TrEMBL record:
GO MF term set: ATP binding; sequence-specific DNA binding
Record flagged with keyword Transcription regulation: yes
Species in which this protein is naturally found: Rufibacter quisquiliarum
Domain Response regulatory positions: 8-127
Stretches assigned to coiled coil: none
InterPro entries documented for this protein: AAA+_ATPase (IPR003593), AAA_lid_NorR (IPR058031), CheY-like_superfamily (IPR011006), Homeodomain-like_sf (IPR009057), HTH_Fis (IPR002197), P-loop_NTPase (IPR027417), Sig_transdc_resp-reg_receiver (IPR001789), Sigma_54_int (IPR002078)
Protein name: DNA-binding NtrC family response regulator
Top-level taxon of origin: Bacteria
Positions of the Sigma-54 factor interaction domain: 152-381
Gene3D superfamilies with a match to the protein in the record: 1.10.8.60, 3.40.50.2300, Homeodomain-like (1.10.10.60), P-loop containing nucleotide triphosphate hydrolases (3.40.50.300)
Xref: PROSITE patterns: RESPONSE_REGULATORY, SIGMA54_INTERACT_2, SIGMA54_INTERACT_3, SIGMA54_INTERACT_4
Keywords: ATP-binding, DNA-binding, Nucleotide-binding, Phosphoprotein, Transcription, Transcription regulation
Amino acid sequence: MAANKNARVLVVDDESDVLFAMKMLLRPEVKEVITEKNPDNLLALLGKQTFDVIFLDMNFKSALNTGNEGLYWLRQILAKDKEATVILITAYGDVELAVKSLREGAYDFIIKPWHNDKLLETLHQALQARQNKQKGAAGKAGRAASAGSLAILGQSDALQEVLYKLEKIAPTEANVLILGENGTGKELVAQALHQKSFRSGKPFVSVDVAALTDTLFESELFGFKKGAFTDAKEDRAGRFEAASGGTLFLDEIGNISLAQQAKLLTVLQNRQVVPLGSNIPVPVDIRLISATNAPLYEMASRNEYRKDLIYRINTVEITLPPLRDRHGDVEMLTRHFMQLYAQKNHKPVPDLAPATLRKLEQHKWPGNIRELQHAVERAIIMAEGNVLQPQDFTFSPMELGGMAQTAAAAFPDAPLPLSEIERETIRRTIERNNGNISKSAKELGLTRTALYRRLNKHDI
């Protein structure tokens, strides 16, 4: 991470120890570090010189005594210099206040006590963003939580709360359980947690555990020795061992059997695996991130899921909002996917007709971001002109929420349970696509693996 030796930084905090620590940390990175204990002197300082980045405490022992002093001074700074890059410092894990500060123009925030590496990373990202803005390269794409090559796009309040939690949790060793509907981006959040952690230089290993049969579960996760079973022609490390030192992401963890839950719990408790065909335990050092759209607590109350495993995997929970609750994010995501798929398919990037945007914003998106992604890709491929029209976006019965109506029309005298509605919709979609599983999965907004699981579940 290259230092910006021409940058000038201001740190405003009423604690002398904080000012000293910040100055010692930042001085090797930038041209000048100015510290100030009294926020009343802020405007005078800004009148004398321009600062590339301002670190501002959110809570001062002042006459304001509202707990929102940082927001007050943030407004004062931005009124003086609307281009100022302000990073707020707070000792309080107040999601609402932090999100409000971002809405009002703060670049980012850090939590006391901070990790030096994380603070310096935030500084350099802020300096880079300021430089891009001055070059006119930043535009108005909205706030993104960058994690290496990853970008979680969105500016809605619902997403900002997730981003705040992500920033706070990522540098810790806490096991994280990510909850949310299908298509909300759970794996992307898991990757961001890894890339923003101190394990980022180590492996990130992802496993869809619901796709593992009972016979594959142990060999894939825990490994095996040569001769352990018929096809075991050589030793092979499992996913736990492959992820050692880094992060293991177990997707669809709500869909594993009780027997698999017991085996997984034993490994997590002992922090070691025993490969198939061996009696020698192998220690593993992993940070666990899990994800599911299943109601684990309801399942536990029905004895379908082990409570002790839930406690083990969810030191912290992150619940991803469905796209329909992310007000204002549909346009940003649509334009992002338009650019992506236009480039992929060697086409010019089109524009959106106002009526098209209204249609997209009114749609409920039951398949969430994955559904939007597929809808945009279809529109890019099939559109005739350089402006996407409402008719360029078509939705399957499942996407329109019409499967219930279809099933109800077929069985008017008896309301169907949800599982039967799903079964009927899948069956008709596959028939319409002449048995083409890939095409049917895409139309339903599912992965091939997820569709195969549902075929097995409904005995289709």
